[in-house]
Write the structure tokens for this entry.
Amino acid sequence: MSRYNVSFAAAVLFVAVHVRAAGVNDCRTLKRHGQTREAAACFERLTRAPDSLSRAEGYFGLGHYDVANDEFRMALKEQPKSAEVRYEWGLLYLNHYQPGDAAKLFEEALELDPNYARAYLELARIAGLSYDKKALDLAQEALNHDPKLYEAHELLAYLALEDSDEERAKAEAQKALAISNEALDGMAVLASIDWLGGKTQSEWMDRILKINPVYGEAYATGAHFFTINRRYELAVEYGRKALELAPDLWQVRSDLGLNLMRLGRTEEARKELQDCFEAHWRDAQTTNALKFLDTLGQYQTFQTGTTELMLNKSEASLLRPYIEPELEKAVATYERKYKMKLPGKVRLEVYPNHDDFVVRTLGLPGQGGLLGVTFGTVVAMDSPSARPPGDFNWASTMWHELSHVYILTATNHLVPRWFTEGLSVHEEGVRDAAWGDRMTPEIVSALKNKKLLPVADLDRGFVRPQYPTQVLVSYFEAGKVCDYIAQKWGDDAILGMVHSYAGRKTTAEAIQDNLHESIDEFNRDFQAWLDQQTADTVRHFDDWKRSIANAKKAASIEEQIQQQTAIRDQYRTYVGPNSPYESLAELYASKGDKAEALKELEQYRNLGGTYVKALKDLARLEQETGSVKEAEHTLTELNYIYPEDEEAHRMFGRLLLDSGDATQAVREFSAVLALKPSDVAESHYDLAKALDAAHRTNEAKDQVLLALEAAPGFKPAQQLLLKLSQ
Amino acid sequence: MKVLCLLFALASVLPGANYYVTIAGLGGSPDYDTQFAKWASELEHELKANGPEAQVITLSGNAATRQKVQETLANLAAEVKPGDAFALFLIGHGSYDGTDYKFNLPGPDISASELAAMLNRIPARRQLVVNMTSCSGGSLAALAKKDRIVIAATKSGTEKNATVFARYWIDALKDPSADTDKNGTVSALEAYLYAQRKTAAYFESEKLLATEHSIISDNGSANGVRDPKPENGAGILAAAFPVIRPESESAKSASPEKQRLLAKKEDLEAKIDRLKYQKAAMPEDEYKQQLTALLLELARTQAEIDR
């Protein structure tokens, strides 16, 4: 190419870029003002532009993502060093539910132009999608490079409201409006604050509609905040309003489908999601939700007067006899305690496939390691079979979620996240002292490093954690706050706070009204109370870590016992993996000291240890030493942790039968059969014996026939058959 | 399993002596040496429950050399009769280089094909080989043969971690629940299924990735299966091979009256098996009625035998 040609080409490109920029901005302005038809015509014109980037913008504006993508690719070939092409292409990906690809392009744009403020802004938006705290820093970075970038203030307002910081959200939104009086998203945040506060009309929405009469995104913003505040009915209502104005907001429609699914309105959900799919909006959320809805045929629902229990057919016969009575017990307990009745039945859905459960709960903040989720009066949770044995306590999780059902209902979903979570953790511990949140090493570390949040800021620990384990620490802290209130002021004070939240009081007001002290006094006293409980462990934490690291296999059993005892005493509540209680029990057992082994394992159980083998060993030891009631207690705990253990059910059934509790023995032997045991004959025979003891002769006879059908020569079963046939 | 029951009924009356050889190989560390020797000793103890006629031979520790193994199997090749049952149990570590499996012994190892050649010289028509070592799946192709049951603790030669299958195989021989048809005998199939289940449960309860997946071949196939069943033609021979048979109701020494009752019992058991075959084609009530009648009669007959 000649020098002349190069200059000419550069000039053409310069003109094209400026014409394009003007063109696409015109189109976007039309769109921003709700002039949909004119905007479409404008984008249409761009598709006929001479340069690829303009054509790409045109197709993007029209929603023709594939063609736009091809044009962007071509544009990048034409302008390989262009940060702008990468930025605009990134917007396409971000709009097309591919934030990972978008982020790469924004980062490339920043490599080429480190001052590209909008690239920082979009990276902030992407970080915000996963509630990453980096979103705040990136948005601020965008403003550092362009203080007039009002969209960055809009995003900061949005993020602040996600953190329940209304004042900061308002301030940021006002900053956006000070720069542009058409800051629609800033106004949407302000309108959302009004809606969250109970106003059905907002002057901000009126202002938005004057600028853009079809700005459904504003209602969608409201729907988002209702969703993260667990007010799903309102989220659905605002999602529908958004779609009335702008039916092609596919992400909003998909979110609506998800919220409908959460509320158990599966057919409505299916329709919305199907519409998205047919419109080629096939993001992971939509396709996974549709696939999930297709699996609902594998489930069976059981009704009682107050409950609906949905179980997978493959495990219904095993789990129902345990979950249903526990569910009814929880309902009765909370009815009494919170002095209220729910508007309808509680629905508990139990998923044996963790992925199904995750799809059911997709989109919630802080969902890592999630075990159960409450949507109004619907609770979804993992089945014990969805997790490795000993990983979680299904009953504890169920009580936790049921507490949410009551508190969310009682407060009309106006309760702050920290309080409902804290109360749920507290209720777990009330139901069984071995349940609730344990003081894990992560929590001890947070205590040691003074990382607990003041109560007024505790919500932030759940929504936008500042360090990896902060959600876990916040659960613990919130639980302890509620323990403290219950211990010092009693359950009525808790109930009073619930009512205060229902009356739209802040945490400071709720504390003042019910505990009669300021939030600062409360914080101070609570910290002192918590320190008193935890100081010893915190003080020895470094010693404990050193002891663990330096622990060697000592020469003799006695030395090993000494070593493990020291480790145990440095951190007595530690019952996590390789706890000293297990080691000590094994060491004592190896030298034949059953009494000491038993003592260690009982402490382990009482502190909430969940290792299945340790609990089975304990039950055996208790049985061997004649502590039948204790063995029954251990096996009951084991059923809450790992109801899939055939051997444990068999052991429990025999204990119960021996101690004359035939009814419960029937439940245990039925569980053995539900687990499809290898020893079918023995299992039917055990059940037959229990049924016989429970005077259910005909059922006993059926079971003994099944035993003998499998093993006709099984003498004890033959004898029972003769007895039952007399 | 209905087919299996009938075949077992035939096998259970076959005459002949039983030979059991257990070899515990090289541990490579004191812990494993102790563990393997302990398992071998426990297995020997359980096998002796088969009565004084059972020949139980155990080679363990430094006694389990290649030469000693060769001598032992060569001696048995001369002693065992075609009507006898022969079982070989291998405990320890194995290795697999992609072609050959080797059983690790003090001194030179022994390969699967060498073992197969030695076993082929033993005239017993009913043979059981339970290779409970790491990589044991790699030995199956060489050892598999018509009328020989081969069980391996791992599905291939590439599962190289030390195995726990042996622990549960031994448990199967002492846990009454392994005898799923409650006939007083633990067959190779019952022991296999028990050990397989317990091994899987072990890995699950310990939250460990399962590093061994046992397989069985008893139809001459060089490819073992994990789940023997009539549909895949596996398990029939294993169901008819008793590993533990502590009880025996020998008709030879019984009185004429008892002989009559034993014959009646066998007849009833055969009728029950036939009825179970017809279950799918019968109305449920009718099946239950007939089954109840037969089972009651069998129970009464057994009570008379035991009286």
